[in-house]
Design goal:
This protein has about 140 residues and is mainly alpha-helical. The protein is elongated, with a radius of gyration of 25 Å. The chain has two domains: about 1-70, Multidrug-efflux Transporter Regulator, Chain: A, Domain 2 (Orthogonal Bundle), CATH 1.10.1660; about 75-139. Strands 1-2 form a two-stranded antiparallel ribbon. The longest helix has about 35 residues, at about 75-110. It has six helices and two strands, in the order ααββαααα. The protein has helices spanning about 5-10, 15-20, 40-55, 60-65, 75-110, 120-139; strands at about 30, 35-40.
């Protein structure tokens, strides 16, 4: 199949396919007599795998190590280890995001409840002190 067909099937631009090929994520393809790239049917599967892996947070470097050179040489154990590690990374990120959200919500509440007798600077200093105190107790 030609690059335009693969791009349409994969929902990406042809330039993205060329980029993946240059990065070694997609194998280089044979060229027809008119110099068009000819991709095998497996290229669609690889392209979809690359897209999904990127959407789930894998870097191109990580994806390159996950993809088999051909489908008969897939290293299932290594793949499972990488997938499980990504889930651990996502869990850690979710915890950091939840803490960041909590800090921001506390800061908003602190700012919105500023007493009239305090200046914004004094209130900001108090808010920062409260955030620092929260970090100490969380650690």
């Amino acid at each position: 199949m030609k690059i335009s067909e693969l791009a349409k099937l994969g929902g990406v631009n042809a330039s993205r396919i060329r980029f993946y090929e240059a990065q070694g994520l997609l194998p280089s393809t044979a060229r027809s007599a008119n110099a068009y790239r000819e991709y095998p049917p497996e290229a669609e599967i690889l392209l979809n795998m690359i897209t999904i892996a990127q959407q789930t947070g894998f870097s191109l470097k990580e994806i390159k190590t996950m993809l088999p050179q051909d489908f008969s040489s897939w290293k299932h154990e290594e793949l499972l280890v990488m997938l499980k590690q990504k889930i651990e990374d996502i869990n850690a990120m979710q915890e950091r995001l939840a803490q960041n959200k909590s800090n921001l919500l506390s800061l908003i509440q602190f700012i919105e409840s500023k007493p009239d007798h305090l200046s914004c600077t004094e209130n900001a200093e108090g808010a920062l002190a409260q955030l620092r105190q929260g970090k100490k107790t969380a650690a």
